[in-house]
Amino acid sequence: MLSDSAEEPDVDLNSLRLAGGDLLGETWDPAPAEKAGPAARPGPALAVLAAAQFMVMLATSIVNVALPQIRAGIGLSDTGTTWVVNSYGLAFGALLLAGGRASDLLGRRRVLRIGLAVFGAAALAAGVATSSTVLIAARTVQGLGAAAIAPAALALVMDLFPPGPGRGRALGVWGAVSGAGGAAGVLLGGVLTQTLGWRWIFHTVAIGTALVLAALSARTLGLTADRSGTGRFDLGGAVSVTLALTALVWALTTARHTGWEDRQVTLAFAAASVLLVIFVLIERRHPDPLMPPRLFGTGQVAAGNVLMALLGSVWIALFFFLPLYQQQVLGESPLAAGLGQLPLAGCVMLGSAVAPRLAVRIGARATAVAALLVLSCGMLWLAFLSAHGSFPADVLGPSILIGLGLSTAFVQLTGFSVEGVPGPDAGLAGGLVNTTRQVGGAVGLAVLTTLAGSATARATTHHTRAEALTSGYRTAFAISAATIAATAVLAALLTGRESKTEG
User: Fold this and answer.
1) Can you name the CATH fold of 12-23+41-233+288-494?
2) Major facilitator superfamily (MFS) profile domain: from which residue to which, for each copy (predicted)?
3) How far apart are CA 331 and CA 71, in angstroms?
4) pLDDT tens-digit profile of 35-60?
5) C or N: which end of the chain has fewer Cβ atoms within 10 Å?
6) Which helix (H) or strand (E) covers residue 252, if one does?
7) pTM, to two decimals
8) CA–CA distances in Å: residue 347 to residues 1, 180, 199, 407, 410
9) Pairing relation of β-strands 233-234 and 10-11?
10) Could you give phi then psi for residue 10, rounded to 5 degrees?
11) Taking CA 203 as the corner, what is the angle to CA 341 and CA 20, rounded to the nearest 5 degrees?
């Protein structure tokens, strides 16, 4: 039992702010008030912030198509190949809450720039790695940078665009780049792998992040006021929840290969449970908790995050299974599999642009429910994939429905997750919604790959390899369709009724 005399360690914010200022060559004013400065044009600033989010999402899927080449290039084992993907997602998902709170307390521009520097440097290290250890470590650090970028960037969008039609359009852009990032990662990964080699996957991310975005953010966001809060950083809460999420995500990803009854997996789940209890106890005692109860007392934050977790469970798995079907069953090259994501990416952009207008016309709840049902129909269509099919017959039609439904749903669920959140907590709200999507994705991918693998194993006895693999993919997509249909029902029940607003 925790004693009152040793509740949790705290961090002196003034010292951290000054240290951050030294890192960036700036003089930091430790006063809690915002820095004054000329007003920035929201358009260019939104473009930079959206590009940063795009790079974060791109990194989640850009290695998927290139895994066979990466494995051959540096001699990865089966486990090592998996962790090239998982190490990024694990660090990203586990550290998002801490990154979001740090951006609220230390300044969002500052945390964003440090995140971009870490992200870009880690991508560069991954591109020159000659061993699996270095590559996996670099991907882990890259996830750390992403955990700082994503919540800080979303909080800055909330600062730039007050509630109203402008924020709706901004979230539409945010949804477009977030959804398109996953599809673009598969596309760009295929193109770069087949033309320049797999190392250019990481070189391109490093150049785009460390050089281009860092320079543009200094130019556009440097003119904006940097919101910073007062209070003590909840280090005990940040450490306990980060370790809990790390143990949970590690257990879920490892269980796909070792089995759910593996001793290490069981111990990791137990550790995650204990650490979450410790986190709750710390939060109840800390005067400035990492997860303040007030965050869930406004708007529809709780409902939005529950729905986003369910959406994430299908979202990440989609970009895992679909390229595998295209390459392993249809026999497409990495380049062809990547180009096959263009229709989906285009529909993501279209759906994100339409979502704010649709919400004005029929209401946010109706828009979210309709989008989720469209997404479910697209997933159900994929549940009838053929082992002797083709891209036009089996993939193109579902991709259109999935792109439209996924992007529109993402915009609305993100809006629910930040609705009514006060400015000082916007970074934390951004970190939370990204956390629920990532953790939901880890859970969904672990469950779906396990079930798909079981279906494939059962079909192997009496069918060809392509037919057995297709059986597994159909199982994954059928369960995904059912999950999203249930999410649509929950969206209708959990989100409040609102009146239609005039555009």
Assistant:
1) Growth Hormone; Chain: A; (1.20.1250)
2) 45-499
3) 19
4) 434 445 677 888 888 888 888 888 88
5) N
6) helix 235-258
7) 0.75
8) 53, 9, 29, 8, 13
9) antiparallel
10) -120, 165
11) 110
